[in-house]
Design goal:
globular, single chain, TIM Barrel, 8-stranded parallel barrel, alpha/beta, 11 helices
Length: 260
């Protein structure tokens, strides 16, 4: 299972996400990985250093998710670091997805909270070269799907995930915003259910709530996750480089995420 370092970007700065209340996010300013408050490139480099041993990055462009323009210069600079880059920038069109790939995204993340239809997801997958380049983010708040489109309302998390995989998403991310930055742990029951329903080749990732090494073991062994998105537990040292490396040896598909 791959541990992926998370950067939330707002106004050109790396901010600390807590509970999905984006208007309250403040620049990342404390912890052993931070040399200057809000320095996104510095934080990304710290994630990728020998100290932390992260090999992939996940970037949420909060300005773009809120309907603004992507932070193109910063995304491009992050892409130049050379690590696989997962980017959620409020993608709604194939054109925007292709732009993110040009900026360096190895996986374009399409979030449920901005997705207008599953047909849209299918078009995006076709535009960027197929399932390996597209991740569907199953955005939840306390387990309830954050749905943008009326056509998707009322569907269960499991139904949404399965449909997304059938429409071209090679990765499904389960992201509960209420758990982000809270260290509450993740919904292992839901993740295990999804692992049983999704195609074997579909990468299952989880985000929001990791509190330490024990959560990594649960996600890899009990839930069958291939990847986990982490910010807070890396920033404050609850997860160290040794934990990141050890995680690659747990789970049914250890290492497959990074190789894809």
């Amino acid at each position: 299972m791959e541990v992926i370092g998370v950067l939330d970007l707002k106004g050109g700065l790396a901010v600390h996400a807590r509970g999905g209340r984006r208007d309250e996010y403040l620049p990342v300013s404390e912890g052993p990985l931070v040399s200057r408050a809000g320095d996104a490139l510095g934080l990304a480099s710290s994630y990728l250093s020998e100290r932390t041993r992260v090999r992939e990055l996940y970037v949420a462009d909060l300005d773009a998710i809120a309907g603004g323009e992507p932070q193109r210069a910063l995304l491009g600079a992050l892409g130049e670091l050379g690590a696989p880059l997962w980017v959620d920038a409020g993608v709604r069109t194939a054109e925007r997805a292709r732009e993110l790939v040009r900026l360096g995204a190895s996986r374009v993340v399409v979030g449920l909270e901005t997705l207008e239809s599953m047909h849209q997801l299918e078009a995006i997958a076709g535009a960027v070269g197929g399932a390996d380049r597209v991740a569907f983010s199953l955005d939840l708040r306390d387990g309830v799907p954050l749905v943008c489109a009326d056509a998707l309302r009322g569907a269960s998390p499991a139904a949404l995930a399965v449909e997304a995989a059938s429409c071209g998403a090679g990765t499904v991310i389960v992201l509960d915003l209420a758990r982000v930055g809270a260290g509450r742990g993740l919904d292992v029951t839901l993740l295990a259910e999804l692992r049983g329903l999704l195609p074997a080749e579909c990468i299952l990732a989880a985000g929001g709530g990791v509190s330490g090494p024990r959560d990594l073991e649960l996600l890899g062994v009990a839930a069958g996750c291939d990847a986990v998105l982490v910010a807070s537990a890396l920033l404050d040292g609850r997860l160290a480089g040794a934990d990141v490396v050890n995680a690659r040896h747990i789970g049914g598909n250890a290492g497959r995420c990074h190789e894809s």
